[in-house]
Amino acid sequence: MASMTRVPFIAGNWKMNLDHLQSIAFVQKLAWTLKDARHDSGDAEVAVFPPFTDLRSVQTLVAADKLDLAYGAQDVSQFESGAYTGEISGAFLKALDCAYVIIGHSERRTMHAESDEIVAAKTAVAIKHGLVPVICVGETAEDLEAHGPSAVPVAQLTAALAGLKAPLDIVVAYEPVWAIGSGLAATPEQAEQVCAALRAVIAKALGKDTADATRILYGGSVKASNIAGFMREPNVDGALVGGASLDVKEFADIARFNKHVGT
Ligand code: PEP
User: How big, in percent rounded to 5, are the helix, strand and coil portions of the chain?
Assistant: First the structure.
């Protein structure tokens, strides 16, 4: 089980699903479900990452009903403001009280050609605006074959942290690309091996204290039925969940991983 000093973090990446009305209904239902289950939720922090167009609605609901739920955006512009059609600035996200922003998700790295340099620039922008970056790293099946499991995620995280100074509040998500949306999750042992290597990268770049405090998540076909195995590993502090975060009961059951950890 991960260190007691790190609060477990269960994050739901909705990707391009749920409009602002659907997100309101979802967040209400999720908050009720988690509240009912609070006694065995293990006090995990739960966060949702809706599309940009939902964020204002989610903010209004979370603030009005004082929901015990964090939220963030799925991306941020590397630029501050100006002639960048379609981009969303860190300042805009902060103005909506976003706590987090996902950076460098593999879908953005592959479909939007986000390089390690762009990921590093976005990480710096997030930090500048007081948003906690959830930095995603992970190898493809070809990378795995050619370089083994840790080489690519280690290089990606090293690049993302270059130039940053401790103390720093960041979250890192190890998401093997071959496991995302495939139904084929990594084993807990595979996840632990890479997450331990990523913690060593943080220690080298930002020092041991930041490394010890940073939550490192596993992502890739996480479900209620396999979360417990990951959460038993000492360097896995939570999960970044895609598909299963779109089902309230399944996602709440993932957040209640403590219920299954002993089984
Ligand atoms: C993701 O997109 O970050 C992800 C982990 O997706 P899934 O849980 O569906 O594999």
Answer: 50, 15, 40
Q: To test the ligand 1 pocket, which listed residue (74, 184, 222, 250) has its Cβ within 8 A of the most ligand atoms? A: 222
| Alpha carbon of 81 to ligand 1 centroid (Å) | 30
Which of helix, strand or coil describes residue 216? strand
Q: What is the pLDDT of residue 121?
A: 98
Q: Please list the residues that pair with 241 across neighbouring strands.
A: 12
Q: Which are the catalytic amino acids?
A: 105, 175
Task: Take atom 1 of ligand 1 and give the residue whose Cα is closest.
Answer: 242
**Is the CB of 219 within 6 Å of ligand 1?**
yes
Looking at residue 39, its pLDDT comes to 44
Contact 1, 261 (CB under 8 A): yes
- Spell out the long-range contacts of 143-148 with Cβ–Cβ below 8 A and sequence spacing 24 or more: 143/177, 144/176, 144/178
CA-wise closest residue to 217 among 120, 97, 127, 100: 100
Q: pTM for the whole thing?
A: 0.96
d(CA 154, CA 165): 18
